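worker-3 :: picked Protein tyrosine phosphatase
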Amino acid sequence: MQTTNQRLLDISGGINFRELGGYPTVDGRTVKWQRAIRTASLARLTDDDQQTLINYGVKVDVNFRSNTEITKEPDRVPTGVRYQHLPVFEEDQTDNSKTQAEIQAELKEKAENGFQHMLDTYHDMITTEKSHEAYQQFFQTLLTTENDVVLFHCTAGKDRTGMGAVFFLNALGVAQPTIRQDYLLTNQVAAGLLHRRLESAKAEGVSGQLLDSIKALWRVSDAYYENAMTAIRDDYGDMHGFLTKALDLSDQDITDLQTLYLTKA
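worker-3 :: tokens ->
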């Protein structure tokens, strides 16, 4: 399997830009390179970053963020790239677009911790109609894009984007341990940003349970992933049931996705 560095795109004005190509499927095929990339925000792309994405073949920008997030920091969409706004939530339930002060005020007001908040967020990504609609349209975009690169993202590229990648790789038939590994890879590639945020919080006097809550909001976790999988099993039986019932994919759609995004065996 390819190294992490082979997956990362050289983007200076963003984090967590990475390839989904190269992953093997259980039937011996491989996800094609330069067909789908998962990323964080495009709001701070430099001109060189935009050209990098154009040169890479990106033709579609799927934005999972809410209207509020986009108003604050709109995408810098490269020239010639088709933009598609598919909000998973009405507002940013992941809290990754919020300032430290906003997060602290929210946690205090709701009397909840960040870990439980994220568990609830992942449950909502599986169960809410708004989320279903966003991912349904995401798959329709994937199904109608031939040869070009589809880029999909949220703010941190870890939760809404992470689960988008989970659904996509499942539809392609990638093995479960590999899918989970890709999901958790965010903690490695964004470790520097998390460290800086936590050091900033400590410098402002944040400690104890509040610091743990902030850390929980800015990371991905096996527990979050498993909470989503549990919701899928409870409501749909298995991932195939979720893809076909909640996300409206037919068996033919899944076959077509595999034809478009996998190498031949």
